[in-house]
Amino acid sequence: MKLFNSITGKKVEFVPIVANEIKMYACGPTVYNYFHVGNARTFMVFDAMRKYFEYRGYNVTFVQNFTDVDDKIINKAKEEKTTTEVVSEKYIKEYFFDADLLGINRADSHPKVTENMQEIIEFISLLIDKGYAYAVEGDVYFDVSKYEEYGKLSKQNLDELRAGARVETKEIKRGPLDFALWKTAKEGEPRWEAKWGKGRPGWHIECSAMIKKTFGGTIDIHGGGSDLKFPHHENEIAQSEALTGKPLANFWIHVGFLNIDNKKMSKSLDNFFTVREIQEEFDLEVIRFFLLSAHYRSPLNFGRELVESSQRGLERLYNAKNNLAYLIKHAEDIPFTKNENKWTSELVLFREKFILEMDDDFNTANGIAVIFDLVKHINSNITGQTSTRALKLAHAVLVELCGVLGLLLEKEEESLEEEIEKLIKTRQQARKDKDFEKADKIRGRLLDKGIFLEDTPSGVKWSRK
Ligand code: AMP
Ligand code: ZN
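That is the input. Now the predicted structure with adenosine monophosphate docked in place:
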């Protein structure tokens, strides 16, 4: 399998450190809001990669953190007159709700900053002892001038960076590129005790500390969205490699942006759609299909027409699967005949082609194209006289390949009901807010799922078709 390694800029054969074992870490969300479709793209890519590695027989340990100490969380807590714990716990729960509907599996662990404070403090302490970090007025900074390889991931010109660095009013750093490992707590902020002063960690140190704690040494794959390359991943490398003298990760994977009108979808540009609001209109499996329909390194534009086209694409896959299931169920037990040999034995060629495409730097776009070719192949060969065995073979390959991408999976009844209840609640709120257009859209979404709503004096009742 070949993967593009963004630290070398080359696509090379991927060989894990230990045969058949993959240690993989992706930077997770800062939990102060619902996540948007751009974030979803990055989470989705790592989830799909993990599923694919497992399909190829690797044993994967996948870790994705939650940043639960951050300015944005502190501000949100202030706004809502509550604690940072309440804010982060709420959005961790909401993350899992949306991730589940997107078919993103739980990582093997989801470490939080608040639960790794001792490891973070210990890490910083070791960096100070080794002379890579210094404490000043209760803050601690990483001394970039001490780490010679700084810039090797993002290939930045350090002189230009230094010249362009923002000069803070309270300039206590030794060098303009030095970054905070620890920040003195301001009034009313969460704080932890460390020997250089009470405060909280900077953002970058958490991932270095969590990787050290979970995996010990070098990991196989580390990644996130392309915006994390600099400074976040560059700083993670500096911290970890300064401390251990070993590579933090062998492969660096960076996911291309999900754009709106060719601009990165982001909270700061206010051009984002949360996954929560999208599900009022689209099944999140459509969003999964849409996000995987492009190669993970290419930019992908988000727009209604494109999502609707994904919806039609996914429908074609469902139709093929349901048609086969129907024929299998209702056809008499038609015996297999010799002339079915050719097309059924060709089914495995689609599996081989799919693997070939996915092995080429995880090309889900081409992988999906192979699945559509498979559907064409199946549709042009099945008739009312096709044997049960041939139908089952075709069904199995289709479900297998789609399943690798997390598509066409059977949903569990429990999560389905939770989704319906949540949609009904959102619709009730929309009606209260007199947003009848939104309320109608949600009713339509539920109807698509075969759910009828009845507004009764004792509340909304729902039933299935
Ligand atoms: P954040 O919560 O902002 O730290 O983002 C969580 C993850 O989403 C990070 O890996 C980001 O790089 C990624 N991300 C943010 N915006 C986008 C986008 N528009 N397209 C793809 N990935 C994104
Ligand atoms: Zn990180």
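The radius of gyration is 25 Å.
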